[in-house]
Each structure stands twice: as C-alpha cells, then as structure tokens.
Amino acid sequence: MGIEDANLAGLVHGGVVMKMCDEAAAIAAIRHCGKRVVTAGVDRMTFVDPVNVGELLTCSATVNAAWRTSMEVGVRVEAENPRTRERRHTSTAYMTMVALDDEAKPTAVPALIAETETEMRRQREAELRRANRLAEREQILEHRDA
Ligand SMILES: CC(C)(COP(=O)(O)OP(=O)(O)OC[C@H]1O[C@@H](n2cnc3c(N)ncnc32)[C@H](O)[C@@H]1OP(=O)(O)O)[C@@H](O)C(=O)NCCC(=O)NCCS
Fold first, then answer.
1. What pTM, to 2 d.p., does this model score?
2. What percent of the chain has pLDDT over 90?
3. Which of 36, 58, 68, 72 gives 20 to 30 Å between its CA and that of 21?
4. Rounded CA separation 68/65 (Å)
C-alpha cells in the first residue's frame, strides 16, 4: 500500500480496503457464474487491525452461497510486512453480488455445491446472514407502516 492510500492518520484508508474487497468479490462471483455481476450490498465489513503504508495487502475471496440470481462472497484481508513476512488478518467482508444478463437484468446463477466441512459452514453462515438481512428489512417496513 502506498501513501496515496493513506488517510490523515497515516494509515490505509478503510475505503481503499473496501474497494479492493469489492473487486476481489466481483472476480470470485464472475468465476462462479461466468456472467457479469454487480454489487447489490455489503452485508458486513469489519476492520480488526489497521493497515500501514508499506504493507502488502492480500484479499482472498470465496463464493459462500448461491441463490437464484445472487451470491454471497466472503473476503478475507491479510496484511504482510514484506521485510519480516509477518502476516495478520485485518478485515473480513461479506458482499452480495448479483449476476446480470445482456439486458442488465438479474439472471440465474449455478448452484453452489458445498463439499468440505468449511464450505458447508460458510454456506450455513451465509444463509443466516441472508435470513437476518431479509428479516430486518421486513421489520423496518412494518415499523414504517405502523
Ligand atoms: C442489484 C440489482 C441488480 C437488483 O435488482 P432488482 O430489480 O432488485 O432485482 P430482484 O428484485 O430480481 O433481485 C435480484 C437479486 O438481488 C438480490 N438483492 C436485491 N437487492 C439486494 C440488496 N440490497 N442486498 C442484497 N441482495 C439484494 C435479491 O435478493 C435477489 O437475489 P436472488 O435472486 O438470489 O433471490 C439492482 O438493485 C441494481 O442494479 N443495483 C445497482 C448495482 C450497482 O450499481 N452496484 C455498484 C456498482 S457494481
């Protein structure tokens, strides 16, 4: 990360990390569905440790679950001090990506077959985040109507 990525405190700006996560998530989603995608939402973004200028940032993205036209992608961000090669976890993000057809309309994506214990855990947790997000939306709409 360079000085152009820094905020006024001299640390890497969270927005720069978010952009990198968004790009990594889009690539993972495109590789899963073979179509163009858009970001429909960021379900969660945590910053667990600040990133310093001069560190190497790696974003690892996996499709955790696929529904009708949308997919949840989890992104793990790690910062490495290139001199010591010490790595640490700095952020996690969960994004919902939607596949689009040539008319820019949401289009079906292939099912995701979770095989390993980790893949099944990620799928379960993605289902929980989606259910919570939809339930929250319902509750907010109910309160608005009340
Ligand atoms: C995302 C978008 C395509 C959804 O369009 P829509 O008309 O609401 O489409 P639908 O109601 O058919 O929903 C399509 C899917 O998107 C999901 N979706 C829609 N809004 C969402 C949101 N805010 N968060 C998460 N998922 C969402 C729906 O759950 C649905 O998923 P499913 O088919 O797997 O069940 C549309 O809102 C859009 O184009 N948004 C702008 C995207 C953008 O510009 N992103 C930034 C740059 S990439």
1. 0.95
2. 99
3. 68
4. 10
